[in-house]
Amino acid sequence: MIRVSNINVSVLSDENALLKKISRIINCNKNDIKNYKIIKKSIDARDKNNIIYNYTIDINVENEAEVLNKKIKNVSKTPNEEYTYKPSGTLKMKNRPIVVGAGPAGLFLSYMLSYYGYNPIIIERGEKMEDRIKSVDTFFSTNKLNINSNVQFGEGGAGTFSDGKLNTLVKDKRFMQKKVFEIFIECGAPEEILYVNKPHIGTDLLRKVIINMRNKIIKNGGTFLYNTMLTNIVINNNKVEEIIVNNKETIPCDNLFLCIGHSSRETYNMLKNKNILMKNKPFAIGVRIEHLKKDINECLYGNKYKDILKDASYNLTYHTNNRAVYTFCMCPGGYVINASSEKNKLVINGMSNHLRESNNSNSAIVVTIDENDYGKNLLDGVKFQRELEEKAYNSLNGLIPVQRYIDYKNNVVTNRLGKITPNTKGNYGFYDINKILPNYINSSIKESIEYFSKRINCFNDDDSILLGIETRTSSPVTIIRDEKGMSNIKGVYPVGEGAGYAGGITTSAVDGIRIFEKFSSIYKK
To answer: How many helices (H) and strands (E) does the chain have?
Structure first.
């Protein structure tokens, strides 16, 4: 096949116009194009009077060699972009490998382990997806929290109750990311995630994809144990020997994969007590902001295209007082959800379904912090998160604190809503968020919102809604691992976002595949 890059067509164009454009580029008849496959598709909205799609497309065409010999700009032979790997390990395992956590890192690691015949055991402190959905919905409606199965914990991980965003800036030289997307598609995700610029699946579809992925893992020899929490690791001669789950049951283990997620605070504490090496890591905290989706669409796409192009998204950054402020996990047409996982603590996140059907768009606005802010002792970051989440909970006895932007700027409690009504999963009330977050965070957020409005006019609208608080942007620690992927305890592999090596669904999944490769280069099935 032939790859044609940098194909620009109006967003008003149809398939026929696209094929005509390709035929002009390669100087052939449109009918000579037998078939084609979209490799990349993005929107260029710099000119609001002429917004275009930019494509990279692979085509199957008559006289391929003749076309390539013309040496046309942006035209080349389609490269091989398939992920390839073959296990080469020679050591024999004593016991089945145990994967702790069924989030994206754990699921993709387990998928690879089961596919290649290693028969993993996956332990998950939360419930399987079908039961987890019921627990989360109950929490949203009643505020009764299941501390082991909630927005943070349970099959699928925290990303399941988010937007299912898959975009990442990480280079993909070995096409691991493509492999992740192919597995998602195999399990029911839409094929467009392979080529759109900012791919997402959506909470509603992702739930089904996770169930299908679980079934494939089981079919290939994996075993899932739900409501099963890792509570201790038995170490002998600096090597894992067995694990204890739920403080009572012992499971023999010589290869333990810690895919624990960024909210596994009890596990972090247990690992610290077992002298598994960790270090504090910078992370970010802040708020969520909601605007009307139609206003964001108009600001980014202009009046001409606002109703044609839907789901406008943004990614904004600002620097103030030696800190980075940035938008995070932007959810067009989404909801702000109560994402708490500990009693008497409150934290929020963003979520949207595949069709992004709600009236509001939301995003986190977060400010970077490090040991100079929260303390230099190990797990001081966790302590700091908990202190802020407790303040947020106590502000309204567990309700999500909400404040109009004009009131947030003036440090007063909102007493009426304007044109925007909060779209939340979980009940909310009015409170002055300035009283929850440190002053340096509040001042940085306010300054950044004014700066962001230079790019998106409606961003600092008085009626914009601020919601508190966002503290779980990434892991507060890194579990140190060596070139073999192991911690200082032989047989213990830290993996994914909770271990400090990823930041989202895709990078966590890729890290799961990466650690599988390291493991399977040592052990045979």
So the answer is: 13, 24
Two tokens, residue 52? 């275009």
Q: To which residue do tokens 């990823």 refer?
A: 502
81, two tokens: 């972009």
**Cross-strand partners of 291:** 361
Alpha helices in 153-259 (DSSP H): 176-186, 203-219
CATH number of residue 32's parent domain: 3.30.70.2700
Task: Supply the pTM of this predicted model.
Answer: 0.96
Same domain (yes/no): 115, 51: no
Which pLDDT tens digit goes with each residue over 98-141?
A: 999 999 999 999 999 999 999 999 999 999 999 999 999 999 99
User: Alpha-carbon distance 405 to 411, whole Å?
Assistant: 10
Q: How confident is the model at residue 167 (pLDDT cuts 50, 70, 90)?
A: confident
Same domain, 315 and 240: no
DSSP 214: H
Q: Is the pLDDT of residue 162 over 90?
A: no
Say how far apart CA 341 and CA 344 lie, in whole Å.
Answer: 9
User: What is the residue range of 10's domain?
Assistant: 2-77
Claim to verify: residue 133 and residue 232 sit in the same structural domain: yes
Q: pLDDT tens digits, residue range 182-239?
A: 999 999 999 999 999 889 999 999 999 999 999 999 999 999 999 999 999 999 999 9
Q: Is 250 in the same domain as 331?
A: no
* Closest to 449 measured CA to CA, from 369, 346, 363, 331: 363
Q: List, for residues 510-522, the tens digit of each pLDDT value.
A: 999 999 999 999 9
